[in-house]
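Hey, resending since the last one bounced:
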Amino acid sequence: MEQTWRAGLFTRGFGAEPEAGAPAVVLVHGLGLSGRYFVPLARRLTADGASVLVPDLPGNARSRAAAPRAPDIDRVAAALAHWHRRLSLGPVLLVANSVGCQVTAALAARFPDLVSRMVLVGPALDPAVPARRQCGALIRDAPREPLSLLGVAVSDYVLTGPLRCAASFRHALRDSAGAFEANLARVRVPTLVVRGAGDTIASPSWTARVAGLVGDGRTAEIAGAAHAAHYSAPDALAELIGKFTATGPGGSA
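The structure tokens again:
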């Protein structure tokens, strides 16, 4: 794993360095976190030959100084697009978790030439669920995650800072109440929506709705995993991603 600043964002790189214009996999973390909790999946995808990049989004964790305050979803998506173009990447496979799915939906809607496919893991936030219930769902999910993930999350939240985490949550709520579903409806690339069977945040009905909103969506569920299925079940998710990327539009082989 290589850790360095690239195009203004702290970035972890796995596998071979992607060549200019060549495809790569970009992993997009959730609210207040860093790319550290994607390391198990990044290593697994690299073992299958992928070039994987995992940026800390602006205002978060090691990229906290990349934004003077917590940016809203549109600004994060624009910053990620700028990072993508500065690195001269070809259309990428985006794999996102939680509120990171709102960022990737905005990116794919506004900059469709940068994205080849999307995998949304535990997409949040469901606009039909009030903020208080969203917080309660997060609390209920915590005991279902590996203890090591909770340690990573707590240290990332401290590094990002509680005020920025709170501001980012407000931005995410506003986006979910307005732009999120509209952005999903503008996505035309093949999209796989995955939930852990024990996820208390992304319900089966909501993940099905997300898959139905995009132009070419499908769903999958991972047994024995919760909201952060990419961390607790990286092998199962990598297998799903491998099958997904091997199919054509509409799920054809």
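The chain has one domain: 2-247.

Sorry for the duplicate.
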